[in-house]
Amino acid sequence: MYVCALVGASGTGKSHRSLWVAKERNIDFVIDDGLLIKGNSVLAGKSAKAEKTRVAAIRTAVLTDDDHAFELKSALKENNAQSVLILGTSDGMVQRIASRLGLGQIDDTVYIQDISSPYEIQQALNTRRMEGKHVVPVPTMELKKDFSGVMLDPLNILRRRGAGQYETMGEKSVIRPTYSYLGKFTISDYTIYQLAEHAAKKNEAVSRITRFRADKADDGIRIEMDIVLFYGYRIPLVFSELRKQIADEIEKYTSLNSVAVILTAKNITVKKKEPEHGGEE
User: pLDDT for 205-263, tens place per residue?
Assistant: First the structure.
């Protein structure tokens, strides 16, 4: 399958431009915010924009739920899809979606700045920030069941063919998700530390964490940890398992992508043996 990605920061107009990119590259299927779309129809999935919180929306967009991913994967197979366009906010995000669907590597990537002018991108950002409006690239009637009670406005998309001549590209929908007017949110470094510590403490080889640092990256976070280990365990094997445990824990509860988990063994300690009567030595 030919897999193409359309990448751009949130609110820069990816959904608005997706039909143009798909048509120019002869791509029939589009994956946008948890939905599998073909033409003017939603074939499978659920929209991240229907979620009530931003964290839940992110988790839906990257197909964290196994049943959700399986539904889209099955629909692609049933429809004999030969090409698909995946929308995402970063290279890491679109690759993650492709991996969840078993599509392998991305064949080609289009960046929003390649197809939109700086003015158009800024206008889209202003609309998102000031009015909280989002675009879903399917007709309003297709979304009624998923967005019951949410304001939906139809938007006809035209493309100029010449002086005074336009080609209809299709109808899209403008919505304002619940989370778009609930204000901004942040996830503190201490929260990330608590999740990492919780994952580490599940590993019987870990005694304690002595240093922790989390740095933001373009497509996720970078974590550094110094750890005291118990004697008797093979450090390379422990760290290989621990990196995955920490990354999975953080992804599960925040949907943040861990681009690197760097672990350093700072000390070795011996587990205390419990006396037979149950007290401490």
Answer: 999 999 999 887 666 788 999 999 999 999 999 999 999 999 888 877 776 778 889 99
pTM value is 0.57
| Tokens standing for residue 149 | 């009670």
Q: Where are the alpha helices (DSSP H) in 62-188?
A: 66-78, 91-100, 112-115, 118-131, 140-143
**pLDDT over threshold 50, residue 133:** yes
The burial class, CB within 10 Å (0-12 / 13-18 / 19+), for 232 is exposed
> Domain total for the chain?
2
Q: Domain of 70: which CATH number?
A: 3.40.50
Provide the token pair at 168.
Answer: 């209809």
- Write out the residue range of the structural domain in which residue 59 sits: 2-132
DSSP 183: -
In the chain, helix, strand, coil percent, each to 5? 35, 30, 30
